[in-house]
Amino acid sequence: MTDQPSPQFDAIVIGAGMSGMYQLLKLRELGLKVRVLEAGTGVGGTWYWNRYPGARFDSESYSYAFSFSKDLLDEWDWSEHFAGQPETLRYLNHVADKFDLRKDIQFRSRVKSAHWRDATRIWDITLGDGSTFTSRFMITAVGPLSAPTMPNIPGVDSFKGQSCHTAHWPHEPVSFEGKRVAVIGTGATGVQTIQEVAKTAKHLTVFQRTPNWCAPLLNSRIDTEEMTKIRAGYPEMFQRCQETFSCFLHTPDPRATFEVSDEEREAFWEKLYASPGFGIWLGNFRDILTDRKANAAISDFVARKIRQRVKNQKTAEKLIPKNHGFGTRRVPMETKYYEAYNQDNVELVDINETPIERITPSGIKTSDTERAFDIIVYATGFDAITGSFDRIDIRGIGGQRLKDRWKHGPETYLGMTVDGFPNMAMLVGPHMALGNIPRTIEFNVEWVADLMRYARDRKVTRIEPEPDQVQAWTDHVKALGEGNLLFEVNSWMTGVNSNVEGKQVRIVNRYSGSAPDWRAKCTAVAEKDYEGMALV
Ligand code: N01
Q1: Contact 15 CB / ligand 1 (< 6 Å)
Q2: Which of 201, 370, 450, 504 is 20 to 30 A from 63, comparing alpha carbons?
């Protein structure tokens, strides 16, 4: 390759969220010439874009933070067990300041296309404004939930009031006081938004298509004394995150649901329901997501809780999911969400009964009536996992489009590379253990950095996984999903989005094995000189 032109950069990273930020740091340590291209005006990715009211962690703040720097751990105090978005964004800006990251990040730079030139072993990358970059490697740090989708309801553009998708929330505060507000969507985002807006809106109307099984977050403040204790326990806590199934503090209980007596089971569920965070979903009996009877039993338990908390039993029934069991979709964590429906200013509209016909200039018309609104909030989710790749025109060998290659679902080797797309590495991509994402990010970024070091030391300029390894990993990921009730339900976790053409069929877009297993496989591949990959 000595006669070939040199690219401008050794690596271009797309995205300055948590994964892109850490990748920049690790590649800089290798002495590589790196540029991060970021569409937003600041760092933080998810935490930069999702500034909707009520946005906050639902995994424990400290377990979500970067663990790679003791200094950083020592100097950052979390104010709540589940921190709000402003605090998390402040934290990520602090990280950017501390490691002087911004000097290699180009903001307001949305990548439009990335084309691989096999003859020169270079990626040609073009931004929306037409500017171009060349790079030996391209690392996607585009996030699994970063391509927001508006609902395919007629008239969305005709509304004259204020309207916004939660992931495009304005930087200026939005007041709901004295306002008639509509929220469309009741996923994790909708639930966080609804419970917050209900506090101040004159009237809030929630348009629900599918109810979700929500569970109490039970957030609380962290005082100095508790923070000191948490800090002292960091080594054990991060070690635990390395050992649990999905890198959370919670991990499945080894017992099966019906192994214990009725009283014991009920007491265990009461305890989980009264404990903060994801325990009821991720720390439950090991079979609640594989055994239909077990799943029906926990669903019944949570349904009883909803009936107890919502006064109007007709409303309670509407809020209880009937087409999927507890935990088979991501469980939204809530704080007095169900109680919001006991307020006089909150109304629930089941759009299966009275479908939305259109958005009008003054509000929303359902089959039975038209309601006027000042503000419409679209909490309608994302074209998940592959959507953030699809919106970039990524082309590999011979001009093959990644979007076409993944038409029937992603195909990857370890979730990080794809044959036909040399020198592309994915962070938090499809087919890798997601779970508590920053824990995955740290491993993922360090694995990619090690690969870059290996390539640099051996003057490797082309890296591509072998097609049969991609096939084998993809088959393995699909096989892991068999018997998992989660894969029998429509949700972003199975790649379904009613608003995106071609995304109505369920696919296996996520790795559902344990995070330790995934990491062990990746480590073994690296230790065997990147077995299954051609490095030349
Ligand atoms: O998106 P969703 P989300 N007409 O896809 C409805 C993470 N997260 O942004 O279910 C009417 O879950 C749709 O209805 P249905 C977390 O991983 C993390 O809420 O398709 N309704 C659904 O109710 C989460 O799982 C945190 O029938 C329409 C909603 O919109 C993921 O992000 C906080 C519609 C979309 O729900 C995504 O959550 C928040 C239409 N045309 C989110 N189209 C934290 O912990 C869609 N809907 C930090």
Answers
A1: no
A2: 450
What are the two backbone dihedrals, phi and then psi, of residue 346, each rounded to the nearest 5 degrees?
-120, 130
List, in sequence order, every beta strand (DSSP E) within 170-296.
180-184, 203-208, 215-216
Segment 171-194, tens digit of pLDDT: 999 999 999 999 999 999 999 999
Rounded Cα–Cα distance for residues 337 and 21 (Å): 34
**CB-neighbour burial class of residue 295 (10 A; exposed 0-12, middle 13-18, buried 19+):** buried
- With tokens 């591509």, the residue in question is 464
CA dihedral 501, 504, 507, 510 (to 10 degrees): 80
Q: Which residue has the tokens 């265990």?
A: 268
* Ligand 1 contacts CB of residue 187 (under 6 A): yes
Q: What is the CA radius of gyration of the chain?
A: 23
Rounded to whole angstroms, the Cα distance separating 488 from 289 reads 11
**Cα 76 to chain center, whole Å?**
24
The residue whose CA has the least distance to atom 9 of ligand 1 is: 381
Domains in the chain, start-ordered, CATH in brackets? 10-43+101-147+384-535 (3.50.50.60), 182-221+250-378 (no CATH)
Specify the residue with its C-alpha closest to ligand 1, atom 7: 188
Q: Compute the average pLDDT of residues 441-457.
A: 98
3-state secondary structure 12-55: EEECCCHHHHHHHHHHHHCCCCEEEECCCCCCCCHHHHCCCCCC
Beta strands 424-426 and 346-350, pairing class: unpaired
Q: pLDDT per residue over 85-117, tens digit each?
A: 999 999 999 999 999 999 999 999 999 999 999
- Reading across the β-sheet that carries 346-350, which strands appear in turn? 162-165, 375-378, 180-184, 203-208, 346-350
Nearest to 279 by CA among 328, 317, 331, 319: 331
Q: Rounded to an integer, what distance in angstroms lies between the CA atom of residue 402 and that of residue 404? A: 5
Helix axes 437-458, 18-29, angle to 10 degrees: 30
Which ligand 1 atom minimizes the distance to the CA of 498? Answer: 43
Burial, 58: exposed, middle or buried (Cβ in 10 Å; 0-12, 13-18, 19+)?
buried
Task: Please identify which residue in the block is written with the tokens 């009730």.
Answer: 485
Give Cα 335 to chain centroid, integer Å: 20
Instruction: Give 467's Cβ-side CA count (13 Å radius).
Output: 2
The answer, yes or no, to whether any atom of ligand 1 lies below 6 A from the CB of 380, is yes
Minimal-distance CA residue to ligand 1 atom 31: 188
Q: Which helix (H) or strand (E) holds 114?
A: strand 111-117
Rounded Cα distance between 288 and 326, Å, is 8
- Runs of H (alpha helix) within 310-419: 313-319, 337-340, 387-390, 402-405
Q: What mean pLDDT comes out for the span 143-152?
A: 98
Give the three-state DSSP class for 453.
helix
* Beta-bridge mates of residue 401: 395
